[in-house]
Amino acid sequence: MAEAEPQALTYIPEVILKKRKHKEESIALTRKNQLELGQHGGKKRKVEDIKRPEQFVREFRDKELDLIRMKQRTKRAKSALTTPNSKLLFVIRIHGKNDMHPKTRKFLYKLRLTRIFHGVFLKATPGVLELLQKVEPYVTYGYPNVKNVSDLIYKKGYGKIDNKRVPLIDNNIIEQALGKYGILCLEDIIHEVANAGPHFKEIINFLGPFSLNKPKEGLQGKKALYKDGGDTGNRANQINDLINKMN
């Protein structure tokens, strides 16, 4: 039987061969970079960034312990809540990350304290004091003086219009947002906040949380109450010293 004639090799132009080689090299290089930097090209992963099983267990226990302690704090008699010396409070979030139970995070978000070193003005109502009791290990608060109210609003204040941050550099913006309440300028805002006036709620809804600087001193990293030598809880008038260090 006659042998079949060998088929001639398909001719591939040199240009196409070069393109294929270049593409293969490019894919190999991209894959190498992905392996080094992570699947989507972020920071290079370090060994310490990879959580071990015991870390997950420890974080779970910390969150459950946080929930238990929060329930214990809320069981205190309402009479145990400190009677405020002022109608106005300034609250700063100073702790809280992986060791926080989702319920605690929910209460912090309700106070608009979504980040560490964010601060907000609040009226010292029974409802607010109960919320502060629930998140006590993560916040510190006290009674701001008029000077610090003014400094915070002038230096760190911004408004929110249509979910956009708006700098408070034009009284027309303030009049547009709050004019129907008789608030026409920055001084009106400061006066209403400092005195916890009748339109305090509307102004606070207009103002965003204050983003403060991490203080070089004044915080020890302890979740104990301020009165017991820690950082958290009611500082009364001493909150003004901390505001000065963070503003």
TrEMBL record:
GO terms for molecular function: RNA binding; structural constituent of ribosome. GO terms for cellular component: cytosolic large ribosomal subunit. The keyword Ribonucleoprotein applies. InterPro entries: Ribo_uL30_ferredoxin-like_sf (IPR036919), Ribosomal_uL30 (IPR039699), Ribosomal_uL30_euk (IPR005998), Ribosomal_uL30_euk_arc (IPR035808), Ribosomal_uL30_ferredoxin-like (IPR016082), Ribosomal_uL30_N_euk (IPR012988). Gene3D superfamilies: Ribosomal protein L30, ferredoxin-like fold domain (3.30.1390.20). The keyword Ribosomal protein applies. Keywords: Ribonucleoprotein, Ribosomal protein. Residues 89-139 form the Large ribosomal subunit protein uL30-like ferredoxin-like fold domain. Residues 12-79 form the Large ribosomal subunit protein uL30 N-terminal eukaryotes domain. Pfam families: Ribosomal_L30, Ribosomal_L30_N. GO terms for biological process: maturation of LSU-rRNA from tricistronic rRNA transcript (SSU-rRNA, 5.8S rRNA, LSU-rRNA). Belongs to the universal ribosomal protein uL30 family. This is 60S ribosomal protein L7. It comes from Dovyalis caffra. The lineage of its organism: Eukaryota, Viridiplantae, Streptophyta, Embryophyta, Tracheophyta.
